[in-house]
Design brief:
By secondary structure, the chain is mainly α. Helices cover about 70% and strands about 5% of the residues. A hairpin with a 2-residue loop joins β1 and β2.
């Protein structure tokens, strides 16, 4: 039975006394398996100067073009895409695109085989480079925020007090219950541990000193900052990131408005006011939790607790702790806003940068707190 015109085949023929390769039929995906067998049989028989007759080529798709590449090679396949080719312009365009894709694939160097230690060093190098670039970007954004704030300091008409008040309610007032509850529970735990250890040495009264020093110098502001970092930095990144994804930031720039002045400064100022207040709430709640444990477990009355606190704990410990709150607030707000501006434009990017804002904020808060603790210790404050 003779082959139908649409039957795909490639066979050797003799034309004008010379061997020639005749390509005909539809070279499409449904005929891929049969054509692959023919190509395997014909490839060893082809010579460099053999003529190619593709005038009978019917339908063609990318699967068929890849088979032609396997049969003819890149250079011969390019000849079929020339203007003097008998193929239609659509076929020539498809072959040209496939040739370009094959050339790019062949030009890409193969992956070099690595080894464990080298891969580890490469990963560390890439991580350090990314960290350095991120640190430079954060430093630049900090400078831009400070410059914008100083520029508006003497222009009260451009202060956005309504936005500051709204942000202050969200980041400050709404966070008071969770900060107070968590600090109260942590204060109770610290007092319980101190009572358990110190009672062994007959020094249960020093549990008061332990709770006071811990919360006035370190834990009060640190707990408040960590909670704010998880609660507020993520909110800042998500809010600005959503505006970035919806191209609202670009619309603000088109209208001649400064996004840093409009979006960043109100959030920074609100957090600068809110975090010291939350730190004070955390200190009071932590001391109250320790006072409760001392009253229930050590028979130290609240009156005695407050008397010891007043007589032995100096004001400088409170000042040391509360002085770190504005620094934490500024860093948390700037990191949250910066991650929002880094959103690429998709929902996935918003989630990634929101997570990054929380992680970076908590990391920076803990690192800065450790550096501050070492500095105050060396200064004997």
């Amino acid at each position: 039975m003779p082959d139908s015109p649409a039957t795909a085949q490639a066979k050797l023929m003799t034309a004008q006394g010379r061997p020639a390769l005749c390509i005909s039929g539809d070279w499409t995906l449904p005929r891929y398996a049969a054509l692959a067998e023919q190509i395997e049989a014909l490839r060893p028989l082809l010579t460099a100067d053999m003529a190619i007759d593709a005038s009978g080529l019917g339908a063609l798709d990318t699967a068929g073009a890849s088979l032609l590449h396997d049969l003819l090679g890149l250079q011969r396949l390019r000849q079929l895409a020339h203007d003097n080719s008998p193929l239609t312009p659509e076929r020539r365009s498809l072959i040209t695109a496939c040739c370009q894709a094959m050339q790019d694939s062949e030009a890409s160097p193969p992956g070099l085989g690595g080894y464990e230690f080298g891969d580890l060093l490469e990963h560390m190098g890439r991580a350090m480079l990314a960290f350095w670039q991120h640190a430079i970007g954060l430093a630049g954004f900090v400078g831009l925020t400070i410059e914008t704030g100083l520029r508006l300091l003497w222009r009260p008409r451009r202060w956005r007090l309504t936005a500051c008040a709204a942000q202050l309610e969200r980041v400050g007032l709404d966070a008071v219950p969770i900060v107070a509850l968590l600090s109260f529970l942590v204060g109770a735990v610290v007092a319980f541990l101190g009572a358990t250890v110190l009672s062994t040495f007959g020094a249960s009264l020093y549990t008061v000193h332990l709770v006071a020093y811990a919360f006035l110098r370190e834990l009060g502001v640190l707990l408040a900052a960590i909670l704010v970092a998880g609660r507020t930095a993520s909110a800042f990144a998500a809010q600005i990131g959503s505006m970035r994804a919806d191209e609202e930031i670009d619309a603000l720039r088109v209208m001649g408005l400064d996004p840093v002045e409009l979006l960043v400064l109100p959030r920074v100022l609100a957090l600068l006011v809110a975090l010291p207040i939350l730190g004070l709430v955390a200190m009071g709640s932590g001391v109250a939790g320790g006072m409760l444990v001392c009253a229930l477990k050590l028979d130290i009355s609240p009156t005695m607790f407050l008397s010891v606190l007043e007589q032995t704990i100096g004001l400088r410990h409170f000042l040391v702790g509360i002085s770190k709150a504005p620094v934490f607030a500024f860093l948390i707000a700037v990191i949250g806003c910066l991650e929002g501006f880094r959103v690429a434009g998709s929902a996935q990017s918003v989630g990634e940068h929101t997570t990054s804002a929380v992680v970076q904020s908590i990391f920076v808060v803990i690192v800065v707190n450790a550096i501050a603790a070492l500095f105050f210790m060396e200064m004997r404050w």
